[in-house]
Amino acid sequence: MMEARSVPAKMDYDDVDSVRRRWLPSLASSQPGGRQRLPASRAMEYVPGPVLPAAAVSPLIRQPGTSFWEMPSLVLAPTCAADQWIISFTHDCRRLAQTKNIDALLRPPRVNLKTLLEYHPPSPTHPAPRIHIADLERALDVNSAGSGAAPHPLAELITALVDKAGMANVVERLALFLPAQRVVAWLAQPTRESYNALVLNYAPRPSQLTVPHPQWVDFVLQGPLRDAIIERQDVYATEEFQNIYANSLRLLNWPGRPVDAINMDPTTGEVWLNDTFAAHALRVENWRMHETFVRRYPELRGFVELTES
């Protein structure tokens, strides 16, 4: 059990330690068959940005004998709004976990996803999700009481992320909730259960555990693509990449309409995913990238499965 003092009351990103530059072997050179090869030299120089101060991530610092599911993703201080929202949310979850069981918060039996049905285009004044510890505590109380009509903090966070990325397709917005929820649960509470809940392709890869990178990269569905982003952060760790990636994602083989993916309570207006759609969305083979993605990043063609639809 972690001691309460191991988590600070506030994350301070201004107090960061400098780190030495180091050489990383090119990920492309280790890929079998040369199919997934980036146009880079055999080795590339990686100059890490500022990392989170040790005090900010102390609950997840690697100790001798740490289980593999407790190995934290090695992230930089926030590089964009999405990073800030994710890190703030998971940090508050860890603080709350010191005094309460947060399983019902991170893995509720169902979540009201009404906010995901409406796309709000990003703008310079795009509001941050208004999620505080009090909201997390409210969600725990709501779940224990058996009512889910109020907006759930997980839904608010993930809605803000897909809105910020410019994702407008309703089916993909709904489907992304499930893998994103599981990644958030593992980041906030890295237990055997939360790790096992990650579908194989969504589990953290060695690059995520050893190379500092923006937090949003952990939410990219394709493991090889996460490797490529982390290797060439100067090229891919940008908001432009986030937007093109989000708008190129396609959920294939779903025969129904968006309304066929959800259940709705006519009394409360609560909307949640039905089991058939949930199982479909969690199968990585049902996800593809539209051709527009490799038109912009042709060197990444070997890292993703494509569709023209």
UniProtKB/TrEMBL annotation:
InterPro entries: DUF3425. It comes from the Eukaryota. This is Uncharacterized protein. It comes from Verticillium longisporum. The lineage of its organism: Eukaryota, Fungi, Dikarya, Ascomycota, Pezizomycotina.
